[in-house]
């Protein structure tokens, strides 16, 4: 009996989670990178809280973006090398669906922890406590959109021998809207305003990503396997 | 059931497959022979649909394999050069996840397949710590578990000891006996009745 789509998604996710917990260093690396960037800024910029607070949205979002680029490397590369993606493509199940499950786990393991740990870094940058929840929400949503966009570019660079630089070059322009609206949301939150409009735009990008990115990633992976 | 007609395929500027055609009916084994670089792997990958041939067609049960890809793939098991296993998982876990995405599989079935390929003693060790031959035995258990009609095997005996080579031959014979089809690049004699074994030498038609 052919496995149901739900069972497939559950297995793909369980497998990636188990692998991640067998090798936690890979998981912690992007998070560590983000924390280091965010803590080095106050040391190098100025100890003056009011000026740090102005720079905080930019620092947090650039840190999050670069750290997500670092994490993207791990999304498909190993699975491509050991033949797992090949078996996915030949399983008779929807490759689009399996890659979507993989991308969700990727966000769960990189984007979400980053958003949850961001308040520690943000406190050092003088972000007021009232703004924390809004900031975490924006980072989590933006991170999800970043993972989805990254799935396309990670798929596209599978065939490239040293895809790391190419991956960054392809991803960064696509990620700029997320950076702009995400940082704007955080700035607004720090000033005590509403972040609803920015969250709506980030949400729209994420929904667009959910509908299109897995399809594009699956097409890209199939080409990459040739 | 499997009909390959006039496959032409280029890799860069090399014309690797030059009009390969063959038919295989249920209960038949097609042995691919030919020197290194003759295009055995390329042909297997093209049949599986991993490579897109410039010309020609692969038909499965009378319909284009490309057109009904998911149906074709659910009846297909492909084993390439490398055993498709995760180093950080055990053999048993690997099979649980890899076969589970194809069909519902019970631990007892996995046990039986591992026993069949003599992979039981090391099934609970991380694959990273296994030898190449041991990995291959785990991967062969996966092929058995897939429950596929069509097996595409690329040098399935690589890294296996004498006993393992015999095992591969037996597994192929059993697959044929239950009406399956095997297309394999194998360097050994198979004890199959005439008519059940077709040999396709790619050296003649390939570059």
Task: Give the mean pLDDT of chain A.
Answer: 93
Helix amount of chain B, in percent? 25-40%
Class based on secondary structure composition and strand pairing of chain A:
mainly alpha
Instruction: Please provide the ordered H/E string of secondary-structure elements of chain B.
Output: EEEHEEHEHHHEHEEH
Give the CATH class of the domain at 1-72 and 181-207 in chain B: Alpha Beta
**What would you call the shape of chain A?**
elongated
User: In this structure, how is the largest beta sheet of chain B organized?
Assistant: 5 strands, parallel
Order of helices and strands of chain A: HHHHHHHH
Task: Please tag this protein with its features.
heterodimer; A: 226 residues; mainly alpha; 84% helix; elongated; B: 207 residues; alpha/beta; Rossmann fold; five-stranded parallel beta sheet; four-stranded antiparallel beta sheet
What does this molecule look like?
- The complex is a heterodimer of chains A (226) and B (207).
- With 226 residues, chain A is mainly alpha-helical.
- Chain A has one domain.
- Chain A has helices at 5-22, 24-44, 49-81, 84-89, 95-124, 132-156, 164-190, 196-225.
- Chain A is elongated, with a radius of gyration of 18 Å.
- The mean pLDDT of chain A is 93.
- Chain B is α/β, with parallel strands linked by helices and 207 residues long.
- Chain B has helices at residues 40-48, 69-74, 91-100, 107-116, 132-145, 162-177, 202-205; strands at residues 2-11, 14-24, 28-33, 55-60, 63-64, 76-79, 150-154, 181-185, 197-201.
- A five-stranded parallel β-sheet of chain B has the order 6-7-8-3-9, with helices on both faces. Chain B has a four-stranded antiparallel β-sheet with strand order 2-1-4-5, with helices on one face.
- In chain B, a hairpin with a 2-residue loop joins β4 and β5 (63-64).
- At the A-B interface, α1 and α4 of A face α2 and α3 of B.
